[in-house]
Design brief:
Shape: globular
Number of strands: 3
Strand order of the largest sheet: 1-2-3
Number of helices: 4
Radius of gyration: 12 Å
Strand content: 15-25%
CATH topology of the domain at 10-69: GMP Synthetase, Chain A, domain 3
CATH superfamily of the domain at 10-69: BolA-like
Largest sheet: 3 strands, mixed
Order of helices and strands: HEEHHEH
Distance between the termini: 26 Å
């Protein structure tokens, strides 16, 4: 069962306040870049857990088979994007 990138984007935006979300994928394998002030003071693992929680149903039903997450605060993203560390 395929899921659209726009659906994933919307689910994450609904779950994480003020998130800027970029999704890339091929139908069941996706990469998510999520930038949100909600990540301020949050450890890397917790950031990923927040994104996974937004997509728990889609992961459970197999709509999303694999998901790579890059989660940043706005400040972290400003630095990473300048260094071209992230995609």
């Amino acid at each position: 069962m395929a899921i659209e990138e726009s659906t994933i984007k919307q689910l994450i935006e609904n779950a994480i306040p003020d998130a800027e979300v970029d999704i890339r994928g091929d139908g069941s394998h996706f990469q998510a870049r999520v930038v949100s002030p909600a990540f301020d003071g949050v450890r890397a693992v917790k950031k990923q857990q927040m994104v996974y929680a937004a997509l728990a149903d889609q992961i459970a039903d197999g709509s999303i088979h694999a998901l790579t997450i890059k989660a940043y605060t706005p400040e972290e993203w400003a630095t990473a994007s300048k260094l071209q560390v992230a995609s």
